[in-house]
Design a protein that fits this description.
Length: 245
């Protein structure tokens, strides 16, 4: 398949989202387009021939092609993310293949309410869905429940605030688990069944749910959503290793 062929991507821009998260814009010479929720593989090759590969979700909506945005959390002992954060500059090139994945994707034409639940950098593929919804002018009701440690750890904070203020059916709900600003009236704990039940009052049991984040959060949220009345087929999950959320 052409999507599994490695191609040499060029970094066209970088942007710090938080002190530990950076977005890289990549120009893809042979990009065939993607669906919100898909990811790509990155392969780095050292001078001695050693190679390291990692998968990263696409954060941009499909309409930006052939440029895609990857939002990467820096893992201090990682082989790839420190290089992407500390070394890569505009104009650099490295190998990318994709898009990959057909299960954890959202169809922008879907009419069912959308429930997105994210922990930490798990918001990245869900942001692609939020951006695509805005891009196509979808009226589908959408709720994003997003767990972060502190306000400074909220990825896409300004954009989410702006999109949530459009009054077009998107609700953005934050829970801050380790530090809250003065006057904070929102949630201040890890996502639990009671929180999900409150959030689901507006989405109902017809919602299509997408859950992404560290494995413990994803498993807990998926089980809770089914206990609250969603069918297992309505809940799609994507998970990764430990993160701060």
């Amino acid at each position: 398949m052409a999507t599994l062929n490695w191609q040499l991507a060029t970094v066209t821009a970088t942007h710090d989202e938080t002190p530990h998260v950076k977005t890289l814009s990549l120009l893809m010479p042979a990009w065939l387009g993607h669906k919100p929720g898909q990811h790509v593989d990155i392969r780095l090759t050292a001078e001695d021939g050693y190679q390291a590969e990692r998968s990263y979700s696409i954060g941009s909506a499909p309409g930006q092609q052939p440029v895609i945005d990857l939002t990467v959390e820096r893992v201090s002992d990682g082989e790839v993310s420190p290089f992407l954060h500390d070394t890569v500059v505009v104009g650099d090139k490295f190998e990318v293949r994709g898009p990959i994945g057909g299960y954890f994707v959202w169809d922008g034409a879907a009419a069912d309410p959308l429930l997105l639940v994210a922990g930490g950098s798990g918001v990245v593929p869900l942001m692609a869905m939020v951006r695509h919804r805005t891009q196509v002018g979808s009226g589908t009701p959408c709720t994003l429940l997003y767990s972060s440690r502190t306000p400074e750890d909220v990825i896409y904070a300004e954009e989410l605030s702006r999109l949530g203020a459009r009054n077009d059916g998107l609700r953005v709900i934050h829970t801050l688990t380790r530090g809250q600003p003065a006057g904070w009236t929102g949630y201040s704990r890890r996502i639990d069944m009671r929180m999900l039940a409150e959030v689901m009052e507006s989405t109902g049991r017809m919602a299509q749910a997408f859950v992404c984040g560290p494995t413990p959060l994803v498993e807990s949220v998926a089980e809770s959503l089914v206990s609250l009345g969603l069918m297992p087929g309505q809940v799609r999950t994507e998970r990764f290793g430990p993160t701060g959320s």
